[in-house]
Amino acid sequence: MLLIPCPHCGLRDEGEFTYGGPARTLPALDQDTQVWRDAFFAGQKPPGPMTELWYHTSGCESWIEVTRDTATHDILNSNTPQSKVDTP
Amino acid sequence: MAYSGLSLLSHALTGNKRWPAILSTPDMRSSYDIVIIGAGGHGLATAHYLAANHGITNIAVIESGWIGGGNTARNTTIVRSDYLLNSSFGLKNFALKLWSDLTQDLNFNLMYEPRGYVDLAHSDGELEHFTLRANAMRLRGGDADILTGQALQERVPELDFSGDKRFEISGALVQESGGVVRHDAVAWGFARKASTAGVHIFQNCPATGFETEGGKITAVQTPQGRIACKQAFISVAGASSAVAGMAGINLPLNSINVQAFVTEPVKPALDAVVNYNAGLSYISQTDKGEFVLGGATDGYSSFARRGSFERIEDVLARAVQMFPFLTRLRLMRHWSGTADIPMDGNAIVGRTPIEGLMINAGWGYAGFKATPAVGWCMAELLATGKTPDLIAPFALERFETGAEQDDGGIGPYPWLH
Q1: Which chain A residues are within 8 Å of B248, Cβ to Cβ?
Q2: Smallest CA–CA separation between A18 and chain B, in Å?
Q3: Is the per-residue pLDDT at A88 higher than 70?
Q4: Where are the beta strands (DSSP E) in B107-189?
């Protein structure tokens, strides 16, 4: 079970959240197909820390950015979205 | 040696002390025609059909763990072909035909039981969609029925229709040819048959790298030495992104945890496989009497092989909605595995950008049922160089060309498939 530290609401159970996948920035519109394919589809990172998006559905109803180790489930950091990310 | 009633009897007379080992333990050669990476069901089925259908036996199958130690023996043993898309239905229905004769073909008791798969709908809209799917299946020669009310109650007498339910049962799609197969026997049955035909199988032997020359595969590196090969085939389920990564291929996969559970054994109470669709919870009873339960993925990227309690509660709550008597049972075992789920929720089968290197990945938690069909088709591709029609829609290129095979209409969210 994950306990996710929401920057607005504090430590909350994973059941309150909806997963949004890895945080990503989409390429410029004039990039070619391969760049878009990689941005959209590829990009499973190896086991270890990954920055991802979670939506606090049963709380503040905000997107938050969480850095989590996918091998151990340790949560290293959480914040309001820092980079220019595209929410799903 | 073929297994038979007579062999059982003769070995019983000698105290079962003289059974030969199932696998031979050959020395590794420095080169093979084909190296198969991953001795799971899919990889071993490919080795078997290469030998049986195409007469190719100069094959090495290398496995980082042991036979029956991966997802082949971690699933909930269900086989079925109730899919809407032509591509998904075609491959899985071909597998269902192969399952029915496989025990005889392999001379190994897979305990295939077509006990029926019952997929529950919880609203009129959902039942209409199930009817569409059932009709699509029937048009393509599959078996599917829609049961409602009394007919469904008679098919699954233990199913609870009573009371004021949050998600009422409005009907079900029933596929009578669906059922269960003893999963570890699938791995061992294919391994034994392939090994007898002359295929070399090496356990505790991971792939550690690939060698290419001019965009063509030339060798696979292992801790036990370099194996030169004309072709190689990656079929490693949860490790797909890591192994394909060694060849410089970035697969559109997400690794997500999936859990399964087994209760203590009781007398026979349920003779079908039943799936609850408001959320996901599927259940069947083994011959030993245990109930086997599974559900959706944990819902987020993970390599931890450690389940979330959130999902355990979720799966069991739904199972109890179907069968309230389950509240009296305790869980005896519980495990999880890493599922490799692509962006469209469907598998990636066929060629890679590297000539001679083939891939079979992305089956997520839905690959067991397709085992013999994937083996059959991959063997044909490896032997003839032509991609069989059944696997053509699952090519890796589809993510660039936009030909995604999204059965559930879910979109590019692997954790929701």
Answers
A1: none
A2: 9
A3: no
A4: 117-121, 145-147, 171-175, 179-180
For residue B308, give the nearest of A14, A47, A71 by CB distance: A14
Q: Which CATH architecture has domain B117-179+255-341?
A: 2-Layer Sandwich (3.30)
| Binary contact (A42, B308; C-beta < 8 A) | no
* Unique residue bearing structure tokens 């996969």: B253
Q: H or E stretch including B373?
A: helix B371-384
Across the strands, what pairs with B173? B119, B146
Q: Which amino acid is at B405?
A: Q
CATH 3.30.2270.10 fits A1-26+45-88, yes or no: yes
Confidence of residue A85 (pLDDT cuts 50, 70, 90): low
What is the rounded distance in angstroms from the CA atom of residue B71 to the CA atom of residue B187? 10
Residues forming beta bridges with residue B35, ordered by sequence position: B60, B232
Structure tokens at B378: 């991959």
Contacts of B413 in chain A (CB under 8 A): 21, 88
Residue with tokens 């090994």: B195
Whether B345 has its CB under 8 Å from any CB of chain A: the answer is no
Query: Which chain A residue lies closest to B345 (C-alpha atoms)?
Result: A41
Q: What is the predicted pLDDT for the residue at A28?
A: 86
pLDDT > 70? residue B235: yes
Pairing of strands B209-213, B273-276: unpaired
- Residue B39 has, within 13 A of its CA and on its CB side, a CA count of 30
**For the segment B150-209, what is each residue's pLDDT rounded down to a tens digit?**
999 999 999 998 878 889 999 999 999 999 999 999 999 999 999 999 999 999 999 999
Burial class (CB in 10 A: 0-12, 13-18, 19+), B174: buried
Provide the pLDDT for residue B52.
98
d(CA B227, CA B223): 10
Q: What mean pLDDT comes out for the span A9-32?
A: 89
Element (H or E) spanning B275, and its range?
strand B273-276
Residues of B in contact with A19 (CB under 8 A): 299-300, 415
Q: Select the CATH number that applies to the domain covering B27-81+83-108+182-251+344-416 from these four: 3.50.50.60, 3.30.230.80, 3.20.20.80, 1.20.1530.20.
A: 3.50.50.60
DSSP chain A: --EEEETTTEEEEGGG-EEEEE---PPPTTS-HHHHHHHHT--PPPSSEEEEEEE-TTTT--EEEEEEETTT--EEEEES--S-----
- How far from B70 is each of B43, B143, B299, CA to CA, in Å? 12, 31, 21
Segments making up each domain of chain A, as ranges:
1-26+45-88
ipTM: 0.89
Q: Which amino acid is at A3?
A: L
Interchain CB contact of B241 with A (< 8 Å): yes
